[in-house]
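Q: For a teaching session next week I want to show students how multiple molecules come together into a single three-dimensional assembly. I've collected the sequence lines for a complex. Could you give me the predicted structure tokens for the whole thing so I can convert them for display?
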Amino acid sequence: MDRNRKILVAILAVVAFSAVLAVIDISLTMQERVRGGPSLELPRTGPGVGIVRIEGPIDFSESASPFGIMSGAESVIRKLDALYRNPDIRAIVVRINSPGGTVGATQEIYQKIAALRKKNVIIVASMGEIAASGGYYVASACSKIVANQGTLTGSIGVIIMSPNLRQLFEKLGITMTVIKSGKYKDILSTFREMTSEERELIQELIDSSYRKFVSDVALGRNMNKDEIMPYADGRIMTGEKALECKLTDMVGTFEDAVNEARKMAKLPDDSAVYDEVKSPFQQFLFSMEGMFRGGNMMERSFKLDSYSILQYRYQP
Amino acid sequence: MNLDSFRSMQWVDYLMYALTDPGALYRLLQRKKESAQLAVSFLVPVTVLFLDIIASSLLRTETDFFYTKLTYGWLLSIFITLFTVTAAASLMDGFAQILGYRGNMKEMVVLVNFSQMPKALLLPGMLIFRTLHFAAPFFYVFLSFLFVIWSAFIAVKGIAEMHDCGPGRALLIYLFPFLFAGITAFFVLVVSALYLARYLS
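A: Of course. Below is the structure for the complete assembly, covering every listed component.
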């Protein structure tokens, strides 16, 4: 083997040796990280607090996140049921990060929490970035509400929206032929102006859902309706302001809510927390999914062939 | 390339010439028309890819997710690398034929593969700066840039030898895939913009 070949073989040997060293370096870094990180913590068992998360708009559509975490009103109800049946769960924290949602879905979650509360289950609401309108409605069913100082909450009210595209269709030369069994059958049609009778009818629906909202909040919060009415005009407020208005019970973080639930259930400070979302990255994906679901819902509500939905929702 | 030729260490010549004399590399490829030459040449970009993944792993804050994705990503990266090299060599060969040179797809692919050789030196270089804790990310980018230029130099010299042309024409042939990709992307962008403008109006 001549000299040049020997030199090149030496270079290749250096490259191979570097690769081995680099792999060892990476492995050691990983081991160090794992040793210091939370993943080597032994799984905790025994009595503890269960977490249910409501992320994004509340509706009945069910979807699974990349980590198999289901969202949607029915899956929230199933989770609450599962936690209630689990003998290790002594208290539940409902983590809410939602601008509200459809009236039906919101009421179902509210009723479920209220039913569990009647069975003396301790349920604490923890508000994230936003827990407005339907998000607040759900929280009001809980035994205690913990909100961050900057949480956006309140927005007590009902909304329904329908775009009026009549002038656009006139421009495009599109007309719609409607044959209906009754005069209100195409109420909220996007192809024509709303009549005053239709407006009255829709307003009745809105008022009825609004009255239900206010009475349920009063029931859940153990307050008089008159105490709530001054703030029940759709206004949004911070967690701090909501505490002043007695719409929440304390200002605090998610951890504070968990600790409060432990205290109420007379659990030790280091008792287990049973949460589907186990890492910040999972939480990030879960939040992203909530955002996408929000986008889909907006898209649906603006589709011409869809129907408008009554919503307990903060809609800026 | 059988076991005997492997033991004879003649294969080292391919790599050595790739680094020291790309013209001689092409002459060697022509002289030794071995059947496995093409397949074996793909080992160079694949090895370079592995070394590059390891080098970049030294830089970042590793997470479980990163490693999981990397495990699956290796296979995908190999396919992407093999496809890119073959596509680039095909475009170079096609353009050379347009310029009136003899087409030789197989030799072009082998040449492009061997021209990747300097990039294998990125890892040892990186390891030094990582061990010294001295501006490792900067030197990763700097050395990558340096080795890309070296790699291009080898390919251009090889193409010049292959088609017996000047370095300017060889450079033009070498750059054609990049120009082609750039021009295609530009026209796709223009057409998309026109389509969008029409849709919005």
